[in-house]
Write a structure and sequence with these properties.
By secondary structure, the chain is an alpha/beta fold. It has 2 domains: 7-18 and 89-215, Rossmann fold, CATH 3.40.50.1000; 20-82, DNA polymerase, domain 1. The protein contains 10 helices and 8 strands. The protein has helices spanning 20-33, 41-45, 52-59, 65-82, 93-103, 115-125, 147-156, 170-179, 193-197, 208-215; strands spanning 7-10, 17-18, 88-89, 106-110, 133-135, 163-167, 182-186, 203-205. Strands 5-4-1-6-7-8 form a 6-stranded parallel β-sheet, sandwiched between helices. A two-stranded antiparallel ribbon has the order 2-3. The longest helix is centred in the first third of the chain and has 18 residues, at 65-82. The chain is globular and about 55 Å long.
Length: 222
Amino acid sequence: MNKKYKCIVFDWDGTLMNSEARIVDSIQCSARRLSLPVLSYDQSKEIIGLSIGKAVEALYPTIDKKMVAEMSIAYTQHFIHDSTISMEPFSGAKKLLSLIKRTGAKASIATGKSRKGLNKALSEVDFAEYFDMTITPVESESKPSPLMLKKILNNFSLEVEDALMVGDSVFDMQMALNIGMDSVAISHGVHEIERLKEYNPVACVNNLLELETWLATRLARG
C-alpha cells in the first residue's frame, strides 16, 4: 500500500516555473553592470535554488559583502523589472496543483526566491490560490538548511513523515535529507538527475505529468 502524504512542498524555479533562462540572464546582466566577470550559462545556473545572497557568494567567492549586496540588488532589479526573457509554468503545473487542492492535502512552496520575487511570479501566473503556505529565505534560512521545511511542518502541525519535498536541484534534495523528509527529484530543471539520485529520493520523474500520476494514489484526503 502506498504511503499517503498530507503536504506536498514544491520548489519554485526549475520545478514548477520554467525560469532558468531568465535567472541566468539576470545574473549575467547584473555582473556586467557591476564590472564583475560574466560567467557562462552553465556556471550561472548551478546556483539556482539558493537565496540570491548565497548564490552570489557561491559564484563570486572573492568579492566583499558590500559587492554581494550590490549584486543582489542589481539581480532583483533586472529579474523583476528589466529582463525581456519570458517565463511560464512547466506543462501540467496547474493540473497537478488542482489535484492536490481537490484532495484536501496541503500544498506549499519552499524557494530560494525573494518574497517580492515569489509574490510577483505567483500573481503573474495566478497560482497563489493553490498554496496553503509559501516560504522564502526572507522568512527563513537558505537551502540546504531544513528550516523552511521545519516551519511548514510546524504551521500545519505535521510530522516529517507526513510531507514530501519535490525539487529539481541538489539544494532541494539536501534540504529534505537534512530533516529526514521524503523527496521526489524532477529532471526538467537545473541539475542532472544522476546528481539528484545521490540524495536517495523516493522517486524520480521527468516532468509534472509523471509526478501527477505518481502522486495520484499517494495523497491523503482531507
